[in-house]
Design a protein that fits this description.
The chain contains 20 helices and 31 strands. It is α/β, with parallel strands linked by helices and 650 residues long.
Length: 650
């Protein structure tokens, strides 16, 4: 952690920020330490429009099945829409742009009518009621948000499945949730071409989906699709007949709001269950603290609603905060690497939140592209999904943010509901690559399995040692798996605590550095090395755009390092041996000779899902020379797998 520059918040940002200094931050941290329930009680009363107040802040009598704001009644859509109508009815709630360039602006009043009509359609036509599960398999169009909010309006539990998932993955999620209705679209646009979603639904429902009674189809690009009589219905026709007012269902604080499936180590996806009040409280608070959202701001998160980032930071968080939130349908490099920067220029975006994978891609494809656009409206930049390497951070900071925008490098998970560790833009001195400090009220600690806090530069388990309102409540229909997955590894003061699955270290100043999944480790001669650490080191080589590292069985060392490296330029490699040597010199300098790569494959790209997640399981199979058994249909570019295999086998 030596020689890492520190970037202090600018005076300009500090003046207007909600939390203006580290003194203010530490004061909030101290408030939560001294009176934990009182801290959350104050915030819940300030931020939530309760239909009926709660009688108790926290019930921990059946840990780890914690309950918050006991007896409180609310409806999340009232929090996100109705309460804004007096002040903000003509303000843009959602600004949407399709990949072909079509545009829509939906005001808060229009959003109210769209959501209410949709809610009435679900109730009146399909008999959806409180507690029913509805699967949403949609592209990034406004109707995806309308569908989520319509479910919340009537108390149905939505389960959004990412529109890039295969029929088999969709079926697994439908069956596990026992969904009554599937909402989908005919198709959408990606990389300049239409693609179809409805046929995937047809395949998914072709067996073992007896719970599904109906399919509601939204026409996005008017593709020619098959219709199953008595099962499939045309949203665009039916919605015309519905009333623009639907009385909100009165929900208990702890009623389920949604399920979101995340990959499990066993291969069976886990249905992460989130509740109403605690989730929406933290979604709104983190919008205000981390993005410092203001009334006049235009905020853009580039995620997909199929992931937790899209739930919390495209739909629920921004709308609860009364913000203007942007949605974009397509990829960042269509028709060229300037697409996102052009949109920031056009819409005068103030907060921009994206993934390190996208940052590295745009850096590679258009290093100087941001300079062609006026990006001066940007005030805060954010990153999400994985640790960002310092080189990508510096390009993002200097070229996109003009050297003036703080970068909030957020650490959180599907299970946490919202940000856990992040810089605060007006307070935190930022170190590139560090998630910095836990947010006020969040007790994130790096410990060993018995709860002893780790010393600086000692890797440990990243745990949350106190419950928090937006935490996962259970795994749908599998409480035993919930306890085992999250509370079966670490204890503090003799009690099980939430283990995130990630490793981390403190530096000498107490900053937290995420080292990657504890199971994403390579055991070399008895030494466990995080893949993220090695990848960050390789990323320091000036020619490396991105890389992924996996372990390969080694008869002497147990495992060896196999690195898949994508170069910034396409000039070819004059000398692979020399370049491999240079990369290993960088690894040796940053980590030590133990971490050197035994094998380096220079590849045209990495196997990634459309959300940007690198499928390391595929790379492990390739490194071992095994047959690829994983489903590659969810990849952004499935053809890259065959290209990598050919390079490795040559």
């Amino acid at each position: 952690m030596e020689n890492i520059p520190i970037f202090d918040p600018s005076e300009e940002i500090k003046k207007v920020a909600r939390i203006k200094s580290m003194d203010e931050y530490w004061s909030l941290v101290e408030e939560a330490k001294k009176d934990y329930e009182g801290f959350w009680d104050r915030l819940a009363k300030e931020k939530i429009d309760w239909i009926k107040p709660y009688s108790k802040v926290l019930d921990d009598s059946n840990a780890p099945f914690y309950k918050w704001f006991i007896g409180g009644k609310l409806n999340v859509t009232v929090q996100c829409i109705d309460r804004h109508l007096q002040k903000r009815k003509n303000k843009a709630a959602i600004i949407w742009e399709g990949e072909p360039g079509d545009k829509r602006v939906i005001t808060y009043l229009e959003l109210y009518y769209e959501v209410n009509r949709f809610a009435n359609l679900l109730k009146n036509r399909f008999g959806i009621k409180k507690g029913d599960r509805v699967v949403i398999y949609m592209p990034m169009i406004p109707e995806a948000a309308f569908a989520m909010l319509a479910c919340a309006r009537i108390g149905a539990i939505h389960s959004v499945v990412f529109g890039g998932f295969s029929a088999e993955a969709l079926r697994d999620r439908i069956v596990d949730a026992q969904a009554k209705l599937v909402i989908t679209a005919d198709g959408a646009y990606r990389r300049g071409k239409p693609y179809l979603l409805k046929p995937v639904v047809d395949v998914a429902l072709s067996k073992d989906c007896e719970s599904v009674e109906s399919v509601l189809v939204i026409r996005r690009n008017n593709e020619d699709i098959s219709w199953h009589e008595g099962r499939d219905y045309d949203y665009n026709e039916l919605i015309k007949n519905e009333s623009g007012h639907c009385e909100p269902e009165i929900m208990d604080s702890e009623d389920p709001l949604f399920l979101l499936y995340t990959s499990g180590s066993t291969g069976k996806p886990k249905g992460v269950q989130h509740s109403q009040a605690g989730y929406i409280l933290w979604a709104q608070l983190t919008m205000e603290w981390v993005f410092d959202i203001k009334e006049e701001d235009t905020y853009w998160c580039t995620a997909d609603v199929g992931w937790i980032t899209g739930h919390t930071y495209i739909v629920y968080g921004p709308l609860a905060a009364g913000a203007t939130t942007m949605m974009y349908e397509g990829v960042p490099v269509y028709p060229d690497a300037g697409r996102w920067w052009r949109m920031i220029d056009e819409y005068k975006v103030n907060q921009f939140y994206t993934a390190p994978t996208a940052i590295r891609l745009l850096h590679k494809m258009g290093e100087d592209e941001p300079e062609k656009y006026d990006l001066r409206s940007l005030r805060i930049l954010g990153t999400v999904g994985e640790p960002i390497n310092p080189d990508a951070w510096m390009w993002y900071f200097n070229k996109v943010g003009g050297g003036k925008c703080p970068i909030v490098d957020t650490w959180w998970q599907t299970e946490t509901g919202g940000h856990m560790i992040s810089p605060l833009p007006g307070a935190t001195p930022i170190k590139p690559g560090s998630a910095t400090f836990p947010l006020p009220g969040i007790f994130a600690e790096i410990i060993d399995t018995e709860g002893n806090k780790k010393e600086p530069n000692e890797k440990g388990y990243l745990c949350i040692t106190k419950p928090w309102p937006s935490m996962i409540r259970t795994i749908w229909n599998d409480p035993d798996r919930f306890v085992k997955s999250y509370f079966g590894t670490c204890k503090k003061d003799g009690k099980p605590v939430y283990f995130s699955g990630d490793g981390a270290i403190y530096d000498e100043d107490g900053y937290i550095w995420i080292t990657g999944r504890m199971d994403d480790v390579i055991n070399i001669s008895g030494h466990r090395l995080g893949t993220a650490e090695i990848e960050a080191a390789i990323g320091h080589h000036p020619r490396v755009a991105e890389c992924a590292v996996v372990g390969k069985p080694h008869e002497i060392k147990g495992e060896s390092v196999f690195a898949f490296v994508v170069l910034k330029d396409d000039e070819g490699i004059a000398d692979e041996v020399e370049l491999t040597k240079e990369i290993n010199e960088v690894i040796t300098k940053d980590i030590g000779p133990l971490a050197k790569a035994d094998e380096v494959a220079f590849v045209p790209g990495l196997p990634k899902t459309r959300s940007g997640k690198i499928m390391r399981r595929i790379l492990r199979a390739i490194a071992k020379g095994e047959e690829i058994k994983q489903d590659t249909s969810t990849l952004e570019d499935p053809s890259v797998v065959e290209k990598i295999i050919q390079i490795v086998q040559k």
